[in-house]
Amino acid sequence: MTNYKNLQNELKRNPRVWLITGAAGFIGSNLLEALLKADQKVIGMDNFSTGKEHNLNEVRQSVTSNQRNNFNFIKGDIRVLADCKQACAGVDYVLHHAALGSVPLSIEDPLACNENNVTGFLNLLLAARDQKVLRFVYASSSAVYGDCEDSLKTEDRVGHSISPYAASKSANELYASVFSKTYGLGSIGLRYFNVFGPRQDPNGAYAAVLPRWVTAMITREAVSINGDGSTSRDFLYVANVVQANLLAATTSNMAAINQVFNVALGTRTTLNELFEVIRSRLLPDYPHLQNVRPHHQAFRPGDILHSQADISKAKTLLAYAPTHTLEQGLDAALDWYKNNLSHQTRVAAPKLLASRTNNSPSHEMAQLQP
Q1: What is the domain partition of the chain in residue ranges?
Q2: Which pLDDT score is estimated for 151?
Q3: How buried is 167 (Cβ within 10 angstroms: 0-12 exposed, 13-18 middle, 19+ buried)?
Q4: What is the arithmetic mean of pLDDT over 47-74?
Q5: Based on C-alpha coordinates, what's the Rg of the chain?
Q6: What is the enclosing helix (H) or strand (E) of 97?
Q7: Is 165 marked active-site?
Q8: Which of 4, 138, 145, 165 is labelled catalytic?
Q9: Which CATH class, in words, describes the domain spanning 197-233+268-306+325-368?
Q10: Given this model, what pLDDT does residue 308 score?
Q11: Do 324 and 249 meet the contact criterion of CB atoms below 8 Å apart?
Q12: Homologous superfamily in CATH for domain 3-195+236-263
């Protein structure tokens, strides 16, 4: 039996109280579902700036009535210290995922990025310190690697930040370290790579690449790739992220406390490979994809060519062991994608694989950075 399976069994025997910030978001709602199904008591906080009420409703429908009764929701804002204090009251573990999570949006509005990702983070640290929570786990990002040219990213080698978003996540790691040394607040940061799965929003200029491509293929729209498609990323199914959070929150390994960890598969998938993996899985239900190919356009200056995580530190110190490959994650998410993504977008474009105008965002855009 794996360490993670043992943990799931232990949690059911000894429930704890968890706070999830950003509970109505993509990752937050998946954490919420997993914890409620493990019979945990969960407080969720969200201000719905990016989170969706229907994500919470979907989770409520997926659990039993008793499990639903273990969930309390606070409509609150991490930028308000009083909201953070209310949310942290009586909590054992904090899973902090409320943030503005877009590199392009942070470039457009760095002040909003700082208010949410830095000031909000500090507010929650203060509240967690004062409430003496057992562990503070937070979402960092592979964006902190910045201009580091190493294709295999290891936690101890980072470059210079190249966006306000990356700077905000680096600031989170620094503040968490300071609170550990100054106040004894135990924290663990998780540097996510390219996460995908159910309840990930396919809409908007900053949507992640995988749900946008799935939506485009289903609705007969163009899939555009910047460059020749050899660009590669480390794509990660959200169930693996859930595992990393629960392991980080509950670990008794003192060597893991006040550390940051890559959370990924430790593999690389090119965009051309990703396109074909998605297309082949959708083809049985969408025969119009038989001869579809992506539209290649100019490589975007500033994009890194390859990104792959070294996950040996998480394996060693957290006993992290991904349960889903890219293909297994797609298989697990496929029914949700089919039932939800095509209904969240506009009517399909009349011409398959028509090029987008220069003013339209590429389907490759946002989550080729994390």
Answers
A1: 3-195+236-263, 197-233+268-306+325-368
A2: 85
A3: buried
A4: 97
A5: 20
A6: none
A7: yes
A8: 165
A9: alpha beta
A10: 95
A11: no
A12: NAD(P)-binding Rossmann-like Domain (3.40.50.720)
